[in-house]
Each structure stands twice: as structure tokens, then as C-alpha cells.
Amino acid sequence: MASNRLVCRECHRVNDADAETCEACGSSSLTEDWAGYVVISHPEESEIAREMQVDEPGAYALKVR
Q1: Which residues are annotated as a binding site?
Q2: Strands 34-40 and 58-64: what pairing?
Q3: What global pTM score does this model have?
Q4: What residues form the annotated binding site for Zn(2+)?
Q5: Per-residue pLDDT tens digits for 5-44
Q6: I want to staple 35 with a disulfide (CB 3.0 to 4.6 A). Which of 13, 50, 63, 65 is the partner?
Q7: What helix, strand, coil percent values describe the chain, rounded to 5?
Q8: DSSP β-bridge partners for residue 30
């Protein structure tokens, strides 16, 4: 993933750099200030997804400022 991607401050979903709103939750609160990410492909089977409260597959930032 490129570091110029934007992350939603609400759901931590990684979005394209030219996104104006989050593709997952629709929030317009996007930031470039984030660190680390995890790709969750089967959230229903993932302990990490449960801990992060993620129920949709995708890439999520671990730390968002």
C-alpha cells in the first residue's frame, strides 16, 4: 500500500488518495496521518477483526491520528 493513501478517522478503512469520502462508512473525515495496516479478508473468522470491531473485508489502519 502506498503511504499517500487516506484513512477514515471513523472506521479506520484505507481509501484511495483521491477519495473525498470513505468507501465503507461515507465519512468525509479522512487523514494522511496514520501508521500500520492490516488486511482482513474473513472478518467473521478473525480475532483481530473482532478486536477492531470490523465486520467488512478490507484494509484497515492500526493507528490513526
Answers
A1: 8, 11, 22, 25
A2: antiparallel
A3: 0.89
A4: 8, 11, 22, 25
A5: 999 999 999 999 999 999 999 999 999 999 999 999 999 9
A6: 63
A7: 15, 35, 50
A8: 8
